[in-house]
Every structure is written in structure tokens, then in C-alpha cells.
Amino acid sequence: MTETATDDRRVPAAVADGAGVESRIDDGDTDATDGLEYEVVTTPALVIGAGAAGARVAISLAEAGLEPLVIGKRDHGDAHTTWAAGGVNAALGSLDPEDDWTIHAADTLTEGHHLNDPEAVELVAEHMPDRIRELDAWGTPFDRTDDGRINQRYFGAQSYRRTCFVGDRTGEAMLETLIETARELEIPHRENAMITRLLSDGERVSGAVGFDMETGGGLLFRSDHVVLAAGGFSAVYDRHSSRDEENNGDAQALALEAGARLLDCEFVQFHPTGMVGDRYGEEWDGRLVTEAVRGEGGRFYNAEDERFMERYSPDQMELDARDVVARAIAREVREGRGTDNGGVYLDITHRDAEYVRDRLPSMVERFESLGVDITEEPMEIAPTAHYTMGGVDIDFQTGETGVDGLYAVGESVAGVHGANRLGGNSLAETVAIGKLVGEHVADAVANDDRDPEVSDDQRALAEREFAALEALAAADGDVTPQELLEDLGDLLWEHAGILRDEAGLREGLAKLAALRERTADLRVDGDLTSRSFEYAVDLSVSLTVAELLLRAALERTESRGAHYRADHDDEESDWRVNLVLSVEEGELALRRRDVGEPSKPVQEALKEGYELDYHHLE
Question: What is the pTM of this model?
């Protein structure tokens, strides 16, 4: 592939962050700097992130006879995977036997506007039937057809019914299965640990540094093989479907600081159906209403009772691509046809009430708790930041990042989804690529890597980080990290949201610079165990990824997938390139890289022009 330099800018400063879960401590060591005490933990392979991707990597490592350590920021099993509700894609052909993996790949490339890494797409599509059968054998309770096959539903922009599901709690059920499998394999995990820096000289990684969120003690993890599986960065937006303390860009900031490349950070998916806070309460604002509602026949209406998708997509209607549907809703609201609360209506009342309760039990239960019976009245929804297609640049056969010993997987990376993710593919990527990455890392672990020594230089680097964390916790200015995070979220929603243009992006960068200056007056209320300190770490990470997002969005002067430029509203053939971001001599460099071509079988599937026939649902 060719790379052409387009621009160089100063890279923003960052204190990065990561993930957590219980392991071996090297000789039970507890060491101390002049201040912060810290543990030293050694492991042959460290997996940062305890969701489906991290769990599947760890299972492959354990099956190869290794004892990896998985760490996460929350309690074990409390990962963002559980919020992926509607389903997971695999061309099983349970209901549509003409479906196959090449059509799945073609749909993914089409939805991604052909910016996807074709090898990554084909690996996911080809491997997923086996991964679903594996999950089924391990105990995932997939819904079944009357004759006992794994049932499948439509998701947006899918040519066939390809999305396997467990009601509307698929991600939760998958993660439960993976965690139970990990427990059977006795894979060590450590909860409530946040990673703030990788031990790296820019060419090789030798571990990670962070702190215990419950005790406030320092953590030095020594490993020659580190896997980033810490998610994306959609939570930097004001309205988003993640919890506030997740998907802040941990993995991307850690990787960039360690010397890895990032890819396509301008592409953020705005899911069409987030709950409307002015209707349901601030704590629910942006919370995802699963795509399964539309997959089961849900319809959109504006405040004038028009089924408005007829204007925008008469063939695919509500099941067109997420970017198309989100822009349609944004336009309805902007042109005055939205609700008083700034949304539209999602209605599934035409379906039999018992069918809705059977297929969408979590949605029924959630809205009932808010006094809404979705079998009898519509839901009020509006778009929400949901998923980031951009991330770490990897080799998908291996997970390698270009920095020796550093690997990445899941929403941490870019490549599978291109300019817009096909619904149901996020869970698919976690297990399909997670297995491959785990197998490669297992092969790469040498005997000397199984119990690595901790050098004086590594301790010194860790101790400098611990001192920086203590200094951050002692910040006693006038502005809280929560305030700045809220302002950052508003900034990005206004200037890098669903509709973008050059003037707005430049204004967003200027506001970002001003916001960054305000961090000099930061106040942290509490020690390293406080939520205020956690938000302070998140703030540094979020400022970094926000700048990457804004600069990449300004650079791409076209509209493609989830990146819509009102001042360049056409998709341009000469912009069918990936934007590669890296740090070179202290400067942020943006380069263009050509996109590869799919295999002959997938090219044939693309030529056939398969397309969803929405009216099967009518």
C-alpha cells in the first residue's frame, strides 16, 4: 500500500487510561516511591479490557497452555459488551439459505463505503458461522426457530436475515458465556484497575502502569505481550449510548503514546435510536434503543404523524444504513417536524403484543419502568453517538500494531467497519478476530516471556507515572474534570456531530484549545479512589481523541458514511483512502493510505448487488 503525507501538527499531550480484573503478583511485591506504594504483577500476556474481545483473546491464550491476565475498569462481567443488545451477525442461512459469507462481506463493505480493510472483513464474515456454533456449544442461549435452528432477524442494510440473537440481550448473553468459559479455564482476572500508560520506548512494549481504583495503590504490570481491548471513544460526545466512564478513548490514546498508528478517527457512528432525555429523564438521555426494534418491524413517525423514511429511503425504509437513518431524523427535527423534545417516534404497536414481549423483553421492561407500554404507544427517540469505526491500525491476522509486543482488538481498532458499521458486526468482530489474535499471541510468547523480570528502567518509568498521578490527584484549582468533560461533549456534538462543515470544525478546534487551557485550573475532589480523579484521567484521554477526531474530520473534504460534510456533500473517488495518524518527532502526522481490494468471490457478490427487501416485514 502507498502512503502520502498530507499534514503534520503537534500531537496533544495525554495521560492515557485503560481497563481491569485478579492475577499473580510477582513474589507478592509491594514497592514504593517517595509517595505512592505499588504492586508489581508479572504475566506472559496482559489483556487490557474485559469485554467480549478481551475475553476471547484470553480464552485462546489459555487453550494454548498460557495463563494470561485480564484486567478491567469495572467489576468482572460489567463490560460495555452487555450494552450490545440486538444481535450478532453470521451467515448461517437458518431462514435464508441463499445467504453466505461472501454476501455478508459484501454487505459490510457496502455499508462501510469501501473504506474497510477487505482482509479484516473477510476474516470476520468467513469465521463467524463457526464462532456462533462455538458460542452455542459453550452455552449461549440463542433464540431458536420452530425446528430448532438458531433463529435470525433482519438488521439494517443486511441483504438477508443474518443476525443471531438472544431476545434483546445478545451482548450480555455472549459475555456471560465467555466469562463462564474463562472461569472454567481458570484465567486470572483483576477488577477495578485503570491503566494510564504503557511501558514503551516507541518500538517495543514491556508492560503497563496504572492504579487500583479501590485502594488507590499503584500497579506495575510487567509483560512482553500486551493486548489492548478497551473499546472506542463515542463517550466523548454529549449524547452517547455508553456509560459516562467508558469508551473515552483509553485504547487509542495509550496506543498512540506508545508509538502505534491510528486510523480513520473521523468516523463516529450515530445510532438513530437513542432515548430522549427531556422525555425520559437525564439519566436516560442517549441510552440505546436496540436496532432489534426496527429489525422486528418498528416504524418511524414524525410529529406530524408522517412515516418520513418514505422520503429518504422508500425501498429500505427504517432498515437503511444507520448513517442514512440518523441524518434523516436529524433533518426532520431541524426542519421543524420533530417532537417538542427534539426527537421522533419509533412505533412497534402494529405488532402483536405477545410477539413484542417475546422478542424485545428488555425494551418492554425498560419502558414499563418509565410508565410507557411500547406494545400500545410509541417510544420517543433521537440519534446518539454509539460506536467509533476509527482506532488502532493493526494486522488482522495477528493483531500486531507495529510496536513489538503490542496488539489490539475489538472496538479499539479500525478496519472492519470502514466509514460506517453494519449493525450486528461489532459483536462478530470481537469473537472472530479475538480468537485469531489470541492464537497469534500464544505462538509469539517465548519461554523467557512467561515470567519476565522487571528492570530498573521499567521501575523508573513506572515511578515517574505514579508521581504524575499523585500530582494530578492533588490539583486544587477551581474547575472540575466533570465540568470540562461536559463542555467537551457539547463542543463535539455541536462541531463534529451528524452534520459537519469546515467552519464548524475549525471553531471546534479553537474551542478545544481554550478548553485545554482551562485544565491548568483543574480541581480534583478526592484521592486516587475518587470518581473525580477517574474523571480527571478520562479528561486527558478524551482531549487527545477529540483533537484527533476534529483534525481528521477537517482533513476529509468529502461525505462518506458516518462522516457528513455539508460543505462537501458528495462522496469523492479520490478520497477512497484511509487517514493514518501517528506521532513523528513530537508532531501529529496525518497521511493518506490506499485501501486494498476484496477477493474475487467477494467482488462477485458485490457485482450481484444483493440488497435488503424491507417489505418482507410488511
Answer: 0.89
